[in-house]
Amino acid sequence: MSPVRLKAVLFDLDGTLVDTADEFVVVVQQLRAEHDLPAMEPARIRRSVSNGARALVALGLDLDPQDAIFEDKRQRLLELYSGVLGTSARPYPGITGLLQELDRRGISWGVATNKPRAYAEPLLARIDLPPCPSLVCPDDVKDRKPHPESLYRNCRDLGCAPHEAIYIGDHLRDIEAGKRAGMRTIAAAYGYIESGDDPAAWGADLLTDDSTQLAGLIFNS
Description:
The chain is α/β, with parallel strands linked by helices and about 220 residues long.
């Protein structure tokens, strides 16, 4: 990475900053049970969490998004999720210490997520993390990731230029958004990676499969 003074570190939410997969495993299994379907292998559900509610409904019910009942099932999944939100989610190992070190060094942090604010805001409030200085959700922008608009808004909130920030995410769209914004990027290969996907091919500046390595990558590069 170039020797530009770092002013902000931005994170994707699910699969990067916070491990929320156990909650989605619960709701997808509940949704399947409501349709008399057997439990699904939890690892399959975990791998799809970063793709959002639509992908989880399609996976859990083997339902085409064009199906007439698809939207009703998506709303049902979100209803089930609201009932468990924040109950088992937790920061990834090393994240709390990383945020503390960022604060000690005078470096801001924020979150750019495609998770709607109705779920992202209470989730962050219910887990053991300091208050988020800049949370940008799809409700806040015209174009969601991989468009860079969310990251530009984080930068405005935090008073930095995009080239003074790093964006960390566990999906190709995160790395694409960061690169389009002119940010340095780190691929979080410890997150929710679909079978057959290769984070090394996303074009990120750096990659790690261990969240406890993030601090070293950020401060020593």
